[in-house]
Amino acid sequence: MKKEEVPQDNSNLSSNNMKELCYATDENGNYTTALSTGWEPKTIALENSIQDINERIEAAKAGVKNGTLSPIVYFMEVHKMDWMTLAGYVGMWTWRVKRHGKPSVFKKMNDKMLAKYAEAFEISVAELKNYKGE
Question: Taking phi first (over 0 means left), then psi (-120 to 50 degrees means alpha), and beta for anything else, what does residue 38 get?
Answer without folding.
Answer: left
